[in-house]
Amino acid sequence: LHIHPVWKSFQRNRLVSDNCHEHKLEFLVEIMRHGKELIKKWTGEYPVAMRTGRFSAGPVVYDAMRWSSLNISSNICVACFKPEQDELHFINGIHKISDVHEFPVTCFVDRNIINYSGFRPLQITSIGHYEMIDILNKMEQNGHEVAVIVTHPFEFIKVLDHRYRHMRLNRLVRRRAEKLCQYLAEHSDRFQVVPLSDPSLLSVKNVPYIPKGHPLMAFRRSAENMINDSFL
User: How far is it between the farthest Cα atoms of the chain?
Assistant: First the structure.
């Protein structure tokens, strides 16, 4: 389940904040339960996991999830949206919050000498496949057992107008995804790709580790992204 409260603006005829952590418990429970029913209608099954829009997270979000019988989440990505509560600044791993198991998007220290920006997420459109592979290898070597990589369908296309009438394939992003998947397939003895609903994840050990990127890889990625963004 993925929710963006801003869509409620059409019903209320006024702008509704898209930050879930800014809303009251009752409102969040309402839209979560409504979203669950829609997915059940479309797929025949209820969702078991959720991610908030814009990675907006706070205690009220997890309380609402508990009331909505959603016990798995991936709401936190400190590189994109830092929760107001310091205790929710998770970089990776698995964490229990209000009876909800949170799997934050894996972030690493970006050591880019061009435009250093602190933490950066393992995101297909954001970094090179060689960086993702490097971070995964470092995490494995240091005993950290869970990595969460994020992507969106729209990252694989280039849009020429806001109504999506004209678009084409984003070849760089597709190549990154293919290279990552190829590496994981070739090293299936070391890495397993599983859904968040896999029960084995709940027994994962939390090994404190903050991965760091490589400056040369970051420079290469910046050049790739700049060139790719310059040619529509």
Answer: 53
Average pLDDT, integer, range 65-88: 96
Beta bridge partners of 159: 167
Which candidate, 110, 111, 83, places its Cα nearest to that of 95? 83
Asked if 7 and 36 count as a contact pair (C-beta separation under 8 A), the reply is no
Region 40-68: what's the mean pLDDT? 97
Rounded to whole angstroms, the Cα distance separating 199 from 162 reads 40
User: Contact, 196 vs 50, CB < 8 A?
Assistant: no
* Mean pLDDT value of segment 72-91: 96
DSSP classification of residue 82: -
| Cβ pair 25, 33 in contact under 8 A | no
For tokens 């949170």, name the residue.
102
- Give yes or no for a contact between 108 and 212, defined as CB atoms under 8 angstroms apart: yes
Host H or E run for residue 109: strand 107-109
